[in-house]
Amino acid sequence: MALRRITLRDFVIVQTLELDLRSGFTVLTGETGAGKSILIDALQLALGARADAGVVREGSSKTDVCAEFECPAHARPWLEEAGFETDDWLLLRRTVDTQGKSRGWINGTPATASQLRALGEMLLDIHGQHAWQSLTRPGSVRGLLDAFAGVNTRDTASRWTQWRADLKALQQARAAQATLQQERERLQWQISEVDKLAPGDLEWEDLDTQHKRLSHAQALLDGAHGALQVLQEDDAGAVSALTHAHSLLQAQEHIEPEFANLADILASSLAQTTDVVHSLHTYLRHADIDPQRLAELDERMSLWMGLARRYKRPPAELPALLKDWKASMRQLDAATDLGKLQANESASAKAYHAAARALSLARAKAAPKLSVSISQAMQGLGMEGGKFEVSVTKASEPSPDGIDDVVFLVAGHPGMTPKAVGKVASGGELSRISLAIAVTTSELGSAPTLIFDEVDSGVGGAVAETVGRLMQQLGRDRQVLAVTHLPQVAACAHHHLKVAKNKSAQGTTSTVLVVQQDERVAEIARMLGGERATETTLAHAREMLGTAAPALVATPIPPAPSSNAARKR
User: Fold this and answer.
1) What is the mean pLDDT of residues 373-396?
2) pLDDT tens-digit profile of 277-327?
3) Do 120 and 184 belong together in one domain?
4) What sign has the CA pseudo-torsion 456, 459, 464, 469?
5) Containing domain of residue 39, as a range?
6) Which of 311, 336, 361 is the last residue of a domain?
7) How many Å apart are CA 11 and CA 510, to the nearest integer?
8) Strand partners, 17
9) Which of 455, 328, 349, 469 is nearest to 398 (CA)?
10) Confidence class for position 564, pLDDT limits 50, 70, 90
Protein backbone atom coordinates (compact mmCIF):
# COMPACT_ATOMS: atom_id res chain seq x y z
CA MET A 1 0.00 0.00 0.00
CA ALA A 2 1.64 3.22 -1.11
CA LEU A 3 1.58 6.52 -2.94
CA ARG A 4 1.14 5.58 -6.57
CA ARG A 5 1.16 8.76 -8.63
CA ILE A 6 1.38 12.52 -8.20
CA THR A 7 0.26 14.96 -10.87
CA LEU A 8 1.04 18.70 -10.82
CA ARG A 9 -0.28 21.49 -13.00
CA ASP A 10 1.15 25.00 -12.67
CA PHE A 11 2.52 24.45 -9.17
CA VAL A 12 5.20 27.03 -8.18
CA ILE A 13 7.76 26.50 -10.98
CA VAL A 14 6.38 23.20 -12.27
CA GLN A 15 4.32 23.59 -15.43
CA THR A 16 3.24 19.97 -15.88
CA LEU A 17 4.40 16.86 -14.09
CA GLU A 18 2.96 13.36 -13.81
CA LEU A 19 5.14 11.02 -11.80
CA ASP A 20 4.60 7.34 -11.08
CA LEU A 21 6.15 6.20 -7.81
CA ARG A 22 7.27 2.78 -6.65
CA SER A 23 7.40 0.81 -3.46
CA GLY A 24 10.66 0.66 -1.50
CA PHE A 25 13.06 3.53 -0.83
CA THR A 26 13.10 6.44 -3.31
CA VAL A 27 15.37 9.50 -3.10
CA LEU A 28 14.90 12.92 -4.67
CA THR A 29 18.09 14.84 -5.38
CA GLY A 30 19.05 17.92 -7.34
CA GLU A 31 21.02 21.13 -7.30
CA THR A 32 20.42 23.77 -4.66
CA GLY A 33 17.37 25.78 -5.66
CA ALA A 34 16.11 23.18 -8.13
CA GLY A 35 13.02 22.61 -6.02
CA LYS A 36 13.72 19.25 -4.41
CA SER A 37 11.01 19.81 -1.84
CA ILE A 38 8.37 20.84 -4.38
CA LEU A 39 6.91 17.35 -4.52
CA ILE A 40 6.66 17.25 -0.73
CA ASP A 41 4.99 20.67 -0.66
CA ALA A 42 2.56 19.58 -3.38
CA LEU A 43 1.68 16.42 -1.47
CA GLN A 44 1.04 18.40 1.68
CA LEU A 45 -1.25 20.73 -0.28
CA ALA A 46 -3.21 17.78 -1.69
CA LEU A 47 -3.52 16.44 1.85
CA GLY A 48 -5.09 19.58 3.28
CA ALA A 49 -2.20 21.93 4.09
CA ARG A 50 -2.93 25.65 4.21
CA ALA A 51 -3.58 27.01 0.72
CA ASP A 52 -1.75 30.11 -0.51
CA ALA A 53 -1.95 31.98 -3.80
CA GLY A 54 1.86 31.83 -3.91
CA VAL A 55 1.76 28.20 -5.05
CA VAL A 56 0.18 29.20 -8.39
CA ARG A 57 2.80 29.35 -11.15
CA GLU A 58 3.33 32.86 -12.45
CA GLY A 59 1.08 33.58 -15.43
CA SER A 60 -1.40 30.80 -14.58
CA SER A 61 -4.93 31.09 -13.21
CA LYS A 62 -4.73 28.20 -10.77
CA THR A 63 -2.66 25.26 -9.58
CA ASP A 64 -3.97 21.71 -9.62
CA VAL A 65 -2.46 18.87 -7.58
CA CYS A 66 -3.61 15.23 -7.63
CA ALA A 67 -2.25 12.38 -5.54
CA GLU A 68 -3.28 8.76 -6.09
CA PHE A 69 -2.87 6.13 -3.38
CA GLU A 70 -3.67 2.53 -2.83
CA CYS A 71 -6.50 2.62 -0.32
CA PRO A 72 -5.40 1.15 3.04
CA ALA A 73 -7.95 -1.00 4.85
CA HIS A 74 -7.91 1.18 7.97
CA ALA A 75 -9.09 4.20 5.91
CA ARG A 76 -12.23 2.53 4.54
CA PRO A 77 -14.42 2.96 7.67
CA TRP A 78 -13.55 6.67 7.77
CA LEU A 79 -14.38 7.09 4.06
CA GLU A 80 -17.71 5.31 4.44
CA GLU A 81 -18.69 7.30 7.52
CA ALA A 82 -17.76 10.57 5.81
CA GLY A 83 -19.81 9.65 2.74
CA PHE A 84 -16.99 9.17 0.22
CA GLU A 85 -16.82 6.47 -2.41
CA THR A 86 -14.56 3.57 -1.47
CA ASP A 87 -12.44 1.69 -3.99
CA ASP A 88 -9.07 0.01 -4.18
CA TRP A 89 -7.61 3.41 -5.08
CA LEU A 90 -7.84 6.86 -3.60
CA LEU A 91 -7.66 10.09 -5.58
CA LEU A 92 -7.05 13.28 -3.61
CA ARG A 93 -7.22 16.52 -5.56
CA ARG A 94 -6.75 20.17 -4.60
CA THR A 95 -6.88 23.37 -6.64
CA VAL A 96 -5.83 26.88 -5.61
CA ASP A 97 -6.51 30.05 -7.63
CA THR A 98 -4.70 33.36 -7.70
CA GLN A 99 -6.99 34.70 -4.98
CA GLY A 100 -5.88 31.95 -2.62
CA LYS A 101 -9.25 30.19 -2.77
CA SER A 102 -8.98 26.41 -2.74
CA ARG A 103 -11.21 23.46 -3.52
CA GLY A 104 -10.68 19.81 -2.65
CA TRP A 105 -12.02 16.42 -3.69
CA ILE A 106 -11.76 12.84 -2.48
CA ASN A 107 -12.56 10.29 -5.18
CA GLY A 108 -14.36 12.98 -7.14
CA THR A 109 -16.56 14.11 -4.21
CA PRO A 110 -16.02 17.65 -2.82
CA ALA A 111 -14.07 17.59 0.45
CA THR A 112 -12.98 20.16 3.02
CA ALA A 113 -9.35 20.82 3.88
CA SER A 114 -9.90 19.28 7.32
CA GLN A 115 -11.23 16.09 5.70
CA LEU A 116 -8.18 15.96 3.41
CA ARG A 117 -5.93 16.37 6.45
CA ALA A 118 -7.75 13.65 8.40
CA LEU A 119 -7.40 11.21 5.51
CA GLY A 120 -3.81 12.31 4.84
CA GLU A 121 -2.79 11.30 8.37
CA MET A 122 -3.78 7.73 7.46
CA LEU A 123 -1.74 7.77 4.25
CA LEU A 124 1.48 9.72 4.88
CA ASP A 125 3.87 10.34 7.73
CA ILE A 126 6.13 13.30 6.92
CA HIS A 127 9.33 14.02 8.82
CA GLY A 128 10.52 17.50 7.85
CA GLN A 129 13.98 18.97 8.17
CA HIS A 130 12.82 20.77 11.29
CA ALA A 131 11.15 17.71 12.79
CA TRP A 132 13.53 17.99 15.74
CA GLN A 133 11.55 21.01 16.92
CA SER A 134 8.76 18.69 18.05
CA LEU A 135 11.24 17.10 20.50
CA THR A 136 10.82 20.13 22.73
CA ARG A 137 7.00 20.22 22.59
CA PRO A 138 5.36 18.41 25.53
CA GLY A 139 2.38 17.26 23.47
CA SER A 140 4.53 15.73 20.73
CA VAL A 141 6.89 14.06 23.22
CA ARG A 142 4.04 12.58 25.23
CA GLY A 143 2.29 11.45 22.03
CA LEU A 144 5.41 9.55 20.89
CA LEU A 145 5.72 7.72 24.18
CA ASP A 146 1.99 6.89 24.25
CA ALA A 147 2.20 5.51 20.71
CA PHE A 148 5.22 3.39 21.68
CA ALA A 149 3.37 2.17 24.78
CA GLY A 150 0.28 1.36 22.70
CA VAL A 151 -2.05 3.56 24.77
CA ASN A 152 -4.17 6.63 24.13
CA THR A 153 -5.58 9.34 26.35
CA ARG A 154 -9.19 9.28 25.12
CA ASP A 155 -10.57 7.54 28.22
CA THR A 156 -8.53 9.70 30.56
CA ALA A 157 -9.57 12.86 28.72
CA SER A 158 -13.24 11.84 28.87
CA ARG A 159 -13.05 11.22 32.62
CA TRP A 160 -11.18 14.51 33.04
CA THR A 161 -14.01 16.37 31.28
CA GLN A 162 -16.62 14.75 33.54
CA TRP A 163 -14.61 15.50 36.67
CA ARG A 164 -14.16 19.16 35.73
CA ALA A 165 -17.88 19.49 34.98
CA ASP A 166 -18.82 17.99 38.36
CA LEU A 167 -16.25 20.15 40.14
CA LYS A 168 -17.58 23.27 38.42
CA ALA A 169 -21.16 22.42 39.42
CA LEU A 170 -20.06 21.94 43.05
CA GLN A 171 -18.08 25.19 43.13
CA GLN A 172 -20.93 27.15 41.56
CA ALA A 173 -23.40 25.69 44.04
CA ARG A 174 -21.18 26.64 46.98
CA ALA A 175 -20.71 30.17 45.67
CA ALA A 176 -24.42 30.64 44.98
CA GLN A 177 -25.91 29.00 48.07
CA ALA A 178 -27.46 32.22 49.45
CA THR A 179 -28.95 33.25 46.13
CA LEU A 180 -30.17 29.76 45.35
CA GLN A 181 -31.78 29.44 48.77
CA GLN A 182 -33.65 32.72 48.30
CA GLU A 183 -34.87 31.58 44.92
CA ARG A 184 -35.92 28.26 46.41
CA GLU A 185 -37.90 29.95 49.18
CA ARG A 186 -39.66 32.22 46.66
CA LEU A 187 -40.60 29.27 44.48
CA GLN A 188 -41.73 27.26 47.50
CA TRP A 189 -44.11 30.06 48.58
CA GLN A 190 -45.57 30.39 45.07
CA ILE A 191 -46.01 26.65 44.74
CA SER A 192 -47.73 26.35 48.11
CA GLU A 193 -50.10 29.18 47.24
CA VAL A 194 -51.17 27.67 43.94
CA ASP A 195 -51.13 24.15 45.40
CA LYS A 196 -53.92 25.27 47.78
CA LEU A 197 -56.08 25.86 44.75
CA ALA A 198 -55.00 22.47 43.30
CA PRO A 199 -55.97 23.46 39.75
CA GLY A 200 -56.82 20.50 37.50
CA ASP A 201 -55.53 20.43 33.94
CA LEU A 202 -59.00 20.93 32.35
CA GLU A 203 -60.83 22.25 35.39
CA TRP A 204 -61.07 25.88 34.25
CA GLU A 205 -62.85 24.94 31.02
CA ASP A 206 -65.33 22.77 32.97
CA LEU A 207 -65.98 25.54 35.52
CA ASP A 208 -66.57 28.05 32.79
CA THR A 209 -69.03 25.75 31.02
CA GLN A 210 -71.00 25.01 34.21
CA HIS A 211 -71.09 28.67 35.23
CA LYS A 212 -72.45 29.78 31.88
CA ARG A 213 -75.17 27.10 32.05
CA LEU A 214 -76.29 27.99 35.59
CA SER A 215 -76.15 31.74 35.09
CA HIS A 216 -78.50 31.35 32.08
CA ALA A 217 -80.63 28.58 33.62
CA GLN A 218 -84.01 30.44 33.40
CA ALA A 219 -83.50 31.32 29.77
CA LEU A 220 -82.59 27.73 29.01
CA LEU A 221 -85.70 26.41 30.77
CA ASP A 222 -87.94 28.89 28.97
CA GLY A 223 -86.39 27.86 25.68
CA ALA A 224 -86.97 24.16 26.34
CA HIS A 225 -90.62 24.71 27.43
CA GLY A 226 -91.29 26.88 24.40
CA ALA A 227 -89.87 24.35 22.03
CA LEU A 228 -92.01 21.57 23.53
CA GLN A 229 -95.11 23.68 23.24
CA VAL A 230 -94.47 24.31 19.56
CA LEU A 231 -93.77 20.65 18.90
CA GLN A 232 -96.59 19.12 20.99
CA GLU A 233 -99.43 21.64 20.82
CA ASP A 234 -102.62 19.56 20.44
CA ASP A 235 -103.97 20.89 17.17
CA ALA A 236 -101.11 22.92 15.66
CA GLY A 237 -98.03 21.15 17.05
CA ALA A 238 -95.27 20.01 14.73
CA VAL A 239 -95.67 16.38 15.78
CA SER A 240 -99.41 16.41 15.03
CA ALA A 241 -98.82 18.14 11.69
CA LEU A 242 -96.15 15.68 10.61
CA THR A 243 -98.32 12.72 11.69
CA HIS A 244 -101.31 14.00 9.75
CA ALA A 245 -99.27 14.74 6.61
CA HIS A 246 -97.66 11.28 6.75
CA SER A 247 -101.11 9.62 7.01
CA LEU A 248 -102.49 11.55 4.01
CA LEU A 249 -99.58 10.59 1.74
CA GLN A 250 -99.49 7.03 2.91
CA ALA A 251 -103.21 6.63 2.15
CA GLN A 252 -102.66 7.58 -1.52
CA GLU A 253 -99.34 5.92 -2.21
CA HIS A 254 -101.05 2.95 -3.90
CA ILE A 255 -102.22 5.39 -6.59
CA GLU A 256 -99.13 7.65 -6.77
CA PRO A 257 -95.88 5.69 -6.12
CA GLU A 258 -93.90 8.91 -5.58
CA PHE A 259 -95.96 9.51 -2.41
CA ALA A 260 -94.31 6.43 -0.90
CA ASN A 261 -90.86 8.09 -0.99
CA LEU A 262 -92.25 11.34 0.41
CA ALA A 263 -94.07 9.43 3.14
CA ASP A 264 -90.78 7.73 4.11
CA ILE A 265 -89.08 11.13 4.41
CA LEU A 266 -91.91 12.40 6.65
CA ALA A 267 -91.63 9.24 8.75
CA SER A 268 -87.92 9.88 9.28
CA SER A 269 -88.58 13.53 10.18
CA LEU A 270 -91.33 12.46 12.56
CA ALA A 271 -88.98 9.99 14.27
CA GLN A 272 -86.27 12.65 14.69
CA THR A 273 -88.82 15.20 15.98
CA THR A 274 -90.10 12.67 18.48
CA ASP A 275 -86.51 12.10 19.69
CA VAL A 276 -86.14 15.85 20.19
CA VAL A 277 -89.32 15.98 22.24
CA HIS A 278 -88.09 13.08 24.37
CA SER A 279 -84.69 14.78 24.94
CA LEU A 280 -86.36 18.07 25.93
CA HIS A 281 -88.52 16.28 28.49
CA THR A 282 -85.40 14.60 29.92
CA TYR A 283 -83.56 17.94 30.07
CA LEU A 284 -86.46 19.64 31.88
CA ARG A 285 -86.73 16.82 34.44
CA HIS A 286 -83.07 17.28 35.43
CA ALA A 287 -82.59 21.00 34.80
CA ASP A 288 -82.97 23.29 37.74
CA ILE A 289 -82.06 26.77 38.89
CA ASP A 290 -79.43 26.03 41.58
CA PRO A 291 -78.32 29.30 43.24
CA GLN A 292 -76.11 27.44 45.74
CA ARG A 293 -74.13 25.65 43.02
CA LEU A 294 -73.82 28.91 41.11
CA ALA A 295 -72.40 30.60 44.22
CA GLU A 296 -69.89 27.77 44.63
CA LEU A 297 -68.78 28.16 41.04
CA ASP A 298 -68.46 31.94 41.47
CA GLU A 299 -66.22 31.44 44.50
CA ARG A 300 -64.03 28.83 42.82
CA MET A 301 -63.63 30.88 39.65
CA SER A 302 -62.80 33.95 41.73
CA LEU A 303 -59.86 32.08 43.30
CA TRP A 304 -58.62 31.05 39.86
CA MET A 305 -58.87 34.57 38.49
CA GLY A 306 -57.19 36.11 41.53
CA LEU A 307 -54.11 33.90 41.16
CA ALA A 308 -54.10 34.41 37.40
CA ARG A 309 -54.02 38.21 37.84
CA ARG A 310 -51.27 37.95 40.46
CA TYR A 311 -48.98 35.96 38.20
CA LYS A 312 -50.14 37.71 35.00
CA ARG A 313 -51.27 34.57 33.25
CA PRO A 314 -54.59 33.45 31.73
CA PRO A 315 -56.48 31.25 34.25
CA ALA A 316 -56.23 28.21 31.96
CA GLU A 317 -52.39 28.36 32.20
CA LEU A 318 -52.23 27.99 36.00
CA PRO A 319 -51.81 24.15 35.95
CA ALA A 320 -48.87 24.38 33.48
CA LEU A 321 -47.32 27.21 35.50
CA LEU A 322 -47.47 25.10 38.65
CA LYS A 323 -45.74 22.21 36.84
CA ASP A 324 -42.98 24.54 35.62
CA TRP A 325 -42.39 25.84 39.13
CA LYS A 326 -42.17 22.32 40.53
CA ALA A 327 -39.65 21.36 37.82
CA SER A 328 -37.56 24.43 38.68
CA MET A 329 -37.79 23.51 42.34
CA ARG A 330 -36.40 20.05 41.60
CA GLN A 331 -33.49 21.63 39.74
CA LEU A 332 -32.84 24.01 42.63
CA ASP A 333 -33.02 21.15 45.10
CA ALA A 334 -30.36 19.34 43.04
CA ALA A 335 -28.24 22.51 42.81
CA THR A 336 -28.44 23.12 46.54
CA ASP A 337 -27.84 19.48 47.47
CA LEU A 338 -24.16 19.90 48.29
CA GLY A 339 -23.93 16.38 49.60
CA LYS A 340 -24.93 14.88 46.27
CA LEU A 341 -22.76 17.30 44.31
CA GLN A 342 -19.78 16.45 46.50
CA ALA A 343 -20.43 12.74 45.98
CA ASN A 344 -20.58 13.22 42.20
CA GLU A 345 -17.34 15.21 42.19
CA SER A 346 -15.60 12.68 44.39
CA ALA A 347 -16.69 9.75 42.20
CA SER A 348 -15.61 11.40 38.94
CA ALA A 349 -12.29 12.49 40.47
CA LYS A 350 -11.68 8.92 41.59
CA ALA A 351 -12.50 7.58 38.11
CA TYR A 352 -10.17 10.12 36.46
CA HIS A 353 -7.23 9.39 38.76
CA ALA A 354 -7.68 5.64 38.30
CA ALA A 355 -7.49 6.06 34.51
CA ALA A 356 -4.58 8.50 34.82
CA ARG A 357 -2.62 6.12 37.09
CA ALA A 358 -3.12 3.26 34.63
CA LEU A 359 -1.86 5.52 31.85
CA SER A 360 1.09 6.57 34.00
CA LEU A 361 2.04 2.95 34.72
CA ALA A 362 1.98 2.13 31.01
CA ARG A 363 4.22 5.13 30.27
CA ALA A 364 6.64 4.22 33.06
CA LYS A 365 6.89 0.69 31.70
CA ALA A 366 7.44 1.78 28.08
CA ALA A 367 9.84 4.69 28.76
CA PRO A 368 12.99 2.57 29.48
CA LYS A 369 12.36 0.42 26.38
CA LEU A 370 11.97 3.48 24.15
CA SER A 371 15.08 5.02 25.74
CA VAL A 372 17.18 1.93 24.95
CA SER A 373 15.88 1.66 21.37
CA ILE A 374 16.61 5.29 20.53
CA SER A 375 20.00 5.17 22.28
CA GLN A 376 20.95 2.19 20.14
CA ALA A 377 19.88 4.00 16.98
CA MET A 378 22.00 7.02 17.99
CA GLN A 379 25.18 4.93 18.13
CA GLY A 380 25.20 4.49 14.37
CA LEU A 381 24.44 8.15 13.71
CA GLY A 382 27.72 9.62 14.91
CA MET A 383 26.73 9.83 18.57
CA GLU A 384 28.75 6.90 19.96
CA GLY A 385 28.34 6.66 23.71
CA GLY A 386 25.37 9.01 23.57
CA LYS A 387 22.43 8.22 25.72
CA PHE A 388 18.75 8.99 25.21
CA GLU A 389 16.37 8.97 28.13
CA VAL A 390 12.59 9.33 28.30
CA SER A 391 11.82 10.99 31.62
CA VAL A 392 8.35 10.46 33.12
CA THR A 393 7.69 12.54 36.23
CA LYS A 394 4.59 13.60 38.12
CA ALA A 395 3.02 16.74 36.69
CA SER A 396 2.36 19.72 38.91
CA GLU A 397 -1.29 19.67 37.84
CA PRO A 398 -3.47 16.92 36.35
CA SER A 399 -4.64 17.43 32.77
CA PRO A 400 -6.72 15.67 30.11
CA ASP A 401 -3.51 13.85 29.12
CA GLY A 402 -2.94 12.46 32.60
CA ILE A 403 -0.74 13.18 35.60
CA ASP A 404 2.68 12.92 33.92
CA ASP A 405 5.24 15.27 32.48
CA VAL A 406 7.17 13.52 29.71
CA VAL A 407 10.52 14.99 28.62
CA PHE A 408 13.20 13.74 26.24
CA LEU A 409 16.69 13.93 27.73
CA VAL A 410 19.96 13.33 25.92
CA ALA A 411 23.65 13.03 26.72
CA GLY A 412 25.72 13.49 23.59
CA HIS A 413 28.87 11.97 25.06
CA PRO A 414 29.75 9.15 27.49
CA GLY A 415 29.69 10.07 31.17
CA MET A 416 27.49 13.13 30.73
CA THR A 417 24.23 13.51 32.62
CA PRO A 418 21.25 13.51 30.24
CA LYS A 419 19.57 16.90 29.99
CA ALA A 420 16.63 18.33 28.08
CA VAL A 421 17.11 17.79 24.34
CA GLY A 422 16.65 21.41 23.31
CA LYS A 423 19.22 22.69 25.80
CA VAL A 424 22.22 20.49 25.14
CA ALA A 425 22.02 19.23 21.54
CA SER A 426 23.30 21.11 18.50
CA GLY A 427 21.25 21.51 15.35
CA GLY A 428 22.98 18.58 13.65
CA GLU A 429 22.58 16.39 16.72
CA LEU A 430 18.92 17.30 16.97
CA SER A 431 18.38 16.23 13.36
CA ARG A 432 20.11 12.93 14.01
CA ILE A 433 18.14 12.36 17.20
CA SER A 434 14.96 13.10 15.28
CA LEU A 435 15.99 10.57 12.64
CA ALA A 436 16.78 7.98 15.31
CA ILE A 437 13.33 8.50 16.79
CA ALA A 438 11.69 8.34 13.35
CA VAL A 439 13.43 5.04 12.59
CA THR A 440 12.70 3.59 16.02
CA THR A 441 9.02 4.53 15.97
CA SER A 442 8.30 4.15 12.24
CA GLU A 443 6.52 0.84 12.74
CA LEU A 444 4.10 2.39 15.23
CA GLY A 445 2.13 4.31 12.64
CA SER A 446 -0.32 2.83 10.18
CA ALA A 447 0.57 5.23 7.34
CA PRO A 448 1.97 3.15 4.47
CA THR A 449 4.24 5.94 3.19
CA LEU A 450 7.07 7.69 5.10
CA ILE A 451 8.59 10.91 3.78
CA PHE A 452 11.88 12.39 5.04
CA ASP A 453 12.52 15.96 3.92
CA GLU A 454 16.24 16.67 4.45
CA VAL A 455 16.26 15.24 7.98
CA ASP A 456 19.88 14.21 7.27
CA SER A 457 20.98 17.84 7.43
CA GLY A 458 24.22 18.27 9.36
CA VAL A 459 25.57 14.76 8.94
CA GLY A 460 28.11 13.24 6.56
CA GLY A 461 30.68 10.49 6.04
CA ALA A 462 30.00 7.15 7.68
CA VAL A 463 27.03 8.61 9.53
CA ALA A 464 25.44 9.59 6.23
CA GLU A 465 25.88 6.04 4.98
CA THR A 466 24.22 4.74 8.14
CA VAL A 467 21.29 7.10 7.51
CA GLY A 468 20.96 5.69 4.02
CA ARG A 469 21.11 2.12 5.29
CA LEU A 470 18.43 2.85 7.86
CA MET A 471 16.10 4.31 5.23
CA GLN A 472 16.86 1.40 2.93
CA GLN A 473 15.89 -0.93 5.77
CA LEU A 474 12.63 0.96 6.30
CA GLY A 475 11.94 0.69 2.56
CA ARG A 476 11.73 -3.08 2.75
CA ASP A 477 8.41 -2.87 4.58
CA ARG A 478 7.13 0.63 3.85
CA GLN A 479 7.28 3.07 0.97
CA VAL A 480 9.95 5.65 1.85
CA LEU A 481 10.61 8.93 0.02
CA ALA A 482 13.57 11.07 1.06
CA VAL A 483 14.75 14.47 -0.14
CA THR A 484 18.51 14.49 0.42
CA HIS A 485 21.74 16.24 -0.54
CA LEU A 486 23.93 13.37 0.66
CA PRO A 487 25.39 10.98 -1.98
CA GLN A 488 25.77 8.27 0.67
CA VAL A 489 22.00 8.34 1.30
CA ALA A 490 21.14 8.55 -2.40
CA ALA A 491 23.33 5.52 -3.17
CA CYS A 492 21.28 3.35 -0.80
CA ALA A 493 17.96 4.03 -2.52
CA HIS A 494 16.01 1.49 -4.53
CA HIS A 495 14.91 4.26 -6.91
CA HIS A 496 16.40 7.65 -7.75
CA LEU A 497 14.56 10.80 -8.89
CA LYS A 498 16.46 13.90 -10.02
CA VAL A 499 14.91 17.36 -9.79
CA ALA A 500 16.23 19.77 -12.43
CA LYS A 501 15.58 23.46 -13.00
CA ASN A 502 15.32 24.71 -16.59
CA LYS A 503 15.48 28.33 -17.75
CA SER A 504 13.95 29.56 -20.99
CA ALA A 505 12.45 32.68 -22.51
CA GLN A 506 9.11 31.69 -21.00
CA GLY A 507 10.58 31.50 -17.48
CA THR A 508 12.02 28.96 -15.06
CA THR A 509 10.49 25.53 -14.73
CA SER A 510 11.31 22.47 -12.67
CA THR A 511 11.13 18.86 -13.84
CA VAL A 512 11.60 15.47 -12.17
CA LEU A 513 13.40 12.68 -14.00
CA VAL A 514 13.95 9.03 -13.15
CA VAL A 515 17.72 8.38 -13.29
CA GLN A 516 19.20 4.91 -13.73
CA GLN A 517 22.56 3.33 -14.52
CA ASP A 518 24.96 5.91 -16.04
CA GLU A 519 22.63 8.84 -15.32
CA ARG A 520 22.46 7.82 -11.70
CA VAL A 521 26.24 7.46 -11.53
CA ALA A 522 26.58 10.97 -12.95
CA GLU A 523 24.13 12.40 -10.39
CA ILE A 524 25.93 10.73 -7.47
CA ALA A 525 29.24 12.05 -8.87
CA ARG A 526 27.76 15.56 -9.02
CA MET A 527 26.69 15.26 -5.41
CA LEU A 528 30.22 14.15 -4.52
CA GLY A 529 32.26 16.71 -6.39
CA GLY A 530 30.23 19.45 -8.00
CA GLU A 531 29.02 20.14 -11.54
CA ARG A 532 32.07 18.78 -13.38
CA ALA A 533 32.33 15.07 -12.90
CA THR A 534 35.85 13.65 -12.99
CA GLU A 535 36.98 10.11 -13.43
CA THR A 536 37.70 10.06 -9.72
CA THR A 537 34.21 11.15 -8.69
CA LEU A 538 32.60 8.86 -11.26
CA ALA A 539 34.64 5.92 -9.99
CA HIS A 540 33.73 6.82 -6.41
CA ALA A 541 30.05 7.03 -7.40
CA ARG A 542 30.17 3.58 -9.03
CA GLU A 543 31.85 2.16 -5.95
CA MET A 544 29.20 3.67 -3.66
CA LEU A 545 26.38 2.32 -5.76
CA GLY A 546 28.03 -1.07 -5.83
CA THR A 547 28.55 -1.36 -2.09
CA ALA A 548 25.15 0.15 -1.25
CA ALA A 549 23.25 -2.04 -3.74
CA PRO A 550 19.72 -2.33 -2.36
CA ALA A 551 18.64 -5.79 -1.35
CA LEU A 552 15.06 -5.12 -2.41
CA VAL A 553 14.16 -5.16 -6.08
CA ALA A 554 11.03 -3.07 -6.02
CA THR A 555 8.52 -3.18 -8.83
CA PRO A 556 6.28 -0.37 -10.04
CA ILE A 557 2.86 -0.18 -8.49
CA PRO A 558 0.38 -1.43 -11.13
CA PRO A 559 -1.93 1.22 -12.56
CA ALA A 560 -5.42 1.45 -11.14
CA PRO A 561 -8.10 0.25 -13.57
CA SER A 562 -10.24 3.30 -12.81
CA SER A 563 -7.51 5.92 -12.58
CA ASN A 564 -8.41 7.63 -15.87
CA ALA A 565 -12.02 7.90 -14.85
CA ALA A 566 -10.98 9.17 -11.45
CA ARG A 567 -8.86 11.90 -13.00
CA LYS A 568 -11.76 13.00 -15.17
CA ARG A 569 -13.86 13.47 -12.08
Assistant:
1) 88
2) 888 778 777 666 666 766 777 778 878 888 888 888 888 888 888 888 888
3) no
4) negative
5) 3-129+418-568
6) 336
7) 10
8) 8
9) 349
10) very low
